[in-house]
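Thanks for the sequence, V.! I ran Small ribosomal subunit biogenesis GTPase RsgA right away. Repeating your input here for the record:
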Amino acid sequence: MKQGKIIKAQKELYYVDCNGKILMAKARGNFRVKKIKPLVGDNVVIDDLEDRKAYITEILPRKNEIKRPNISNIDQILLFATIKDPILNLYNLDKYLAMCEYKDMDVVIVLSKIDLCDENEVKDFENIYENIGYKLISLDNFDNFPKEKILDILKNKTSAVSGASGVGKSTFLNNLIDIEVETGSISEKSKRGKNTTRHTEIFKIGDESFLFDTPGFDSFDIDFIEDEKELKYLFREFRDKRCKFKDCNHINEPACGVKSYLADGLISKSRYDNYLMLFEEVKKRRENKW
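Predicted structure:
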């Protein structure tokens, strides 16, 4: 028996790194019976057979996991966004940030393809998210790539690259490490990425530094949270605002501190509007569940 980390998954075949030796493994049938699926990032126990083949016999306890992309044991997310090509979807971005807050994962927002938009658009975006404490890197993948700065952010952490299809994740990885990741363009018909990464994989970029390459997402369910009243805690700019009622949801309640800050322009209107939409989405999901 050996211990290792799943660094790549393709259908039902898993690549397990055991102290630098890569073994191809399948999961034992009892996982399927228990409805448990090994994830990229899992630390596992394997039964090593001949010809570099193995079977996964145990999945060690997970630090965390997310469903889209379906990965585990993440320290931080590098969340990619573009203002143009594809057009920025702030609703999906804020939904994803709420999920990261819920999972207690650090986030670095990577604003890619800034050469396609003007400085004011970039500044407006930066002002929204830097003002509420998110780390943010703005980059043009083809000029002045800040490799050393990014490697320092990734140092001694297991990070995941995520974001919608076509936002420049593969180009980013090609610039960062000595690999060739298939890059995708934007389909004119659907305005979605095409020919992009189809599997999840981990790259080792230092002794204790790992980087997930994950398939892009365009939308996902907000099933990580069941009660809409908990959503307010996932918007960090809402915290420590003095409201008349302790259980204020910052919607229709009187003497709401959040709405006061919003009226004074101290809270982003786009973030607040997305909070309202997410609140309704969680509420409808809860009501329809029963």
